[in-house]
Fold this sequence. Notes:
Distance between the termini: 54 Å
Largest sheet: 3 strands, antiparallel
Order of helices and strands: EEHEEEEEHHEHH
Oligomer: single chain
Bound molecules: zinc ion
Strand content: 25-35%
Amino acid sequence: MQSINPVVKNKRVVECPVCQEHEFTIEHLFTELQGRECRWSCNECSTRFSFLVKDDVFTMEKIAPDHMRSLVLLQSEVDPNLYVVTKGFTRLAKTGEKPPYKETAADNRYYYEEHTCPTNFLRGVERLIYKGDFDPHGIFKYVRHVDIDVAEEMTGYKIWDNDFLNFGFYIVFPELVKE
Ligand SMILES: [Zn+2]
């Protein structure tokens, strides 16, 4: 066996002072972003902060949030018994206030029904509910699997390349092509 020295990497981080659940990496504020104000929201509680490193002094300040998280309920058009609850968000006004419900609902309707590929919002799925069952074992049937080396050989594409994502799936799983 070969012995390798692991590298210790230090980077400066700050914990969200509101929820203590999220760490912001601020190392790059000390280097390439020195003197530039950055605005980020906490991944966990959505509190928004302004961050600044000037003359190597770090300051952060709470500012009005630009969004708030939400839960979005979606119902399958294919089988109305199938629902998913996914992570969404509501854009807030500059003052930090919520826009009228109808506005966000219209944005969401467009986003989920027309704009985004379902693959995108399925990544954020919190629950999949079928006929009232929150734990619907058996709603998916295993069809088959193809190992990655075999998939690359079949298609001539590198796995996860755009060409693979756009065309490769249909070569690997020809049953996906509708007659
Ligand atoms: Zn937080």
